[in-house]
Design a protein that fits this description.
Layout lengths: L1 E4 L10 H7 L1 H15 L4 E6 L13 E4 L5 E2 L11 E6 L2 E4 L2 H9 L5 E7 L6 E6 L5 E7 L4 E3 L9 E5 H7 L4 E2 L3 H10 L4 E7 L1 E4 L3 H11 L13 E2 L4 E3 L2 E3 L4 E2 L4 E3 L2 E3 L4 E2 L4 E3 L2 E2 L4 E2 L4 E3 L2 E2 L19 H7 L16 H21 L3 H11 L5 E7 L5 E7 L6 H8 L20 H8 L7 H7 L3 E3 L6 H4 L3 H7 L5 E3 L1 H5 L7 H15 L2 H20 L3
Parallel strand pairs: 1-2, 1-5, 2-3, 7-13, 15-18, 16-19, 17-20, 18-21, 19-22, 20-23, 21-24, 22-25, 23-26, 29-30
Antiparallel strand pairs: 4-12, 5-11, 6-14, 7-11, 8-9, 10-13, 27-28
Helix pairs in contact: 6-7, 8-12
């Protein structure tokens, strides 16, 4: 279970978050953004009792708490199977690789884990080590998202993970103090082990003007409630460009221009010839005639007094860092629409083709499995950890063709590696047994990968599935090949020349070319050529 806590920071800032939750359209954006970041986990929101809230989602429980009172969630039914209770900071909209982060948390021996997200640790980054005199003594390059230990923060971090076994000790009656210092003291008093991590990710501060504008850009006004209605009155020559959400009773004067994304609350009046671009305007606010409001959150009409009725634009681009950080999803080389061939039709073909091939192979599987077991000790299947779409790791299945100690022997044989780049290959590999050589020559060892295709982890056609250490060798190539599902066959496998010193270059070239030119015609050509090659290779064995 996860509890998202919205805290009232007295005396800090202009309380933009409280303003957002009181507006029906912005509240829907905040709710939906937090829920989208948490996936299927049961989520509860905790809001100060004195805040107004336009909450309308009956499926999401809400706790109300006083300024100095503890947050009581004893009545909530959490998932008893979950190992951790997660407490999140509602003012921070976090973007990170949550599965990767939670795996790190599970591997810690701590009872309580505090997590602070840092965009400087996301994806490709470098670290420089210096002496106390600022002399550089070394540096290290990281190709993947990073996580590191850090000091326990003085205030609430972005997320806190608490083991269920420790909840009763520090949260008696499931009541959470609103003071982080008291929370940390309770952990210390119970001799609980507390660890603080800084991990890759990015954050939007929803209690700031820049954060709310970023939220509007990320979620889009079309996602908010009430966005389907237009203004009550639209003056002569007035224009609405792009996506905008309007409250009830919005009036737009003659010649005014609204450029989305924009959110206008209930009762907003836009004067004649006024321009509103990329802005949020609070309910009942009045934008004077001729005023220019750009990239601002307007909560008070008095902001226009004494400055010639022109709002000074603010250009703080916090959205760029938020959009570019937080796991492999930001690094897609290319994306496609939902109903396009790569996203929809290709998947239907994958399911149909893999189902047919697996059904054909089922009668022969007992014979092949017995041959593998008799050839050498070990399992029938070999599971290799590989990266799929968006860098998500999965177990790539193959029929075992080598001795059980093959991985340990590879480093000793690397001196005779016959290909360049991060891969390993040699003729007459001593790790391959007799049955395995036949399976490889006929490509029967790759039949179980059609199970990965059915699971949605692979495609019939695509780049060769590779582990993380291979993908780290060339970042731009990695971003291209992780934009699609890896395939059982692909362009590189058909077109490579195996010329000395060129194999890795060809690998990068053909993978990138496939992603750039992905189409039905290319997939059909690869499928046809692969079928011809498989038939010829199988016939050559007899």
């Amino acid at each position: 279970m996860e509890v998202v806590v919205f805290r009232d920071c007295e005396g800090k800032g202009k309380k933009r978050l409280a303003f957002a939750l009181a507006d029906e359209r912005l509240c829907a954006m905040v709710w939906d953004a937090h829920l989208a970041a948490r996936g299927d986990r049961t989520t509860t929101f905790a809001i100060p009792r004195h805040w107004q809230s336009a909450h309308r989602n009956a499926d999401v429980p809400v706790i109300r708490y006083g300024r100095k009172a503890a947050i009581d969630f004893a009545s909530l039914d959490g998932d008893g199977r979950a190992e951790w209770l997660v407490i999140s900071n509602g003012a921070s909209l976090c973007k990170a690789n949550h599965e990767w982060l939670e795996q790190h948390v599970k591997e810690t021996p701590a009872d309580v884990v505090c997590v602070t997200l840092d965009p400087g640790l996301a994806g490709y980054h470098e670290k420089i080590r210096t002496t106390r005199d600022n002399e550089i003594v070394g540096w290290r390059r990281y190709y993947g998202d990073g996580v590191e230990l850090c000091e326990i923060p003085k205030d609430w971090p972005h997320r806190i993970f608490i083991r269920n076994a420790a909840i009763r000790k520090i949260l008696p009656g499931k009541a959470l103090t609103n003071d982080f210092a008291r929370f940390a003291a309770a952990c210390s008093a119970q001799a609980l082990k507390v660890i603080s991590l800084r991990a890759a990710g990015s954050v939007l501060d929803l209690d700031s003007e820049e954060g709310l504008l970023g939220l509007m850009h990320v979620m889009g006004p079309s996602a908010s409630r009430g966005s389907g209605q237009g203004p009550e009155t639209l003056g002569a020559g007035a224009r609405i460009v792009g996506s905008a959400a309007f409250g009830r009773g919005v009036r737009i004067g003659d010649g005014a221009v609204i450029v989305g994304p924009a959110v206008l609350g209930d009762g907003v009046h836009i004067g004649d010839r006024a321009i509103v671009k990329g802005a949020i305007v609070a309910r009942q606010a009045h934008i004077p005639a001729g005023a220019v409001v750009r990239d601002r959150v307007v909560t008070d009409s008095r902001a226009f007094e004494g400055n010639g009725a022109v709002e000074t634009p603010r250009r703080k681009h916090v959205l760029r860092n938020f959009a570019e950080n937080g796991g492999f999803e930001r690094d897609y080389f290319r994306t496609w629409r939902t109903w396009s061939y790569p996203r929809y039709i290709k998947r239907l073909f994958d399911v149909a083709a893999s189902s047919a091939i697996l059904l054909l192979f089922v009668p022969f599987f007992p014979v092949v499995a017995a041959a593998i077991k008799f050839s050498s000790p070990g399992p029938v299947f070999y599971r290799a950890r590989r990266q799929g779409l968006g860098g998500k790791a999965f177990d790539c299945l193959k029929l075992r063709t080598m001795v059980p100690t093959a991985e340990g022997m590879q480093e000793k044989l690397r001196a005779v590696n016959q290909v360049d780049g991060p891969q390993f290959k040699m003729e007459n590999d001593p790790r391959v047994n007799a049955v395995g050589r036949f399976l490889r020559d006929t490509n029967l060892d790759e039949i179980p990968q059609f199970i990965n295709v059915l699971r949605g982890e692979m495609s019939v056609i695509g780049p060769r599935p590779s582990p993380e250490h291979e993908n780290a060798g060339c970042p731009q190539w990695r971003y291209a090949r992780l934009s699609v599902r890896p395939g059982i066959t692909g362009l590189w496998q058909l077109c490579r020349t195996r010329e000395e010193g060129k194999d890795f270059q060809e690998w990068v070239h053909y993978d990138s070319t496939y992603v750039r030119k992905l189409s039905f015609g290319m997939d059909f050509w690869i499928f046809w050529k692969t079928a011809q090659k498989l038939i010829n290779d199988f016939v050559d064995q007899f």
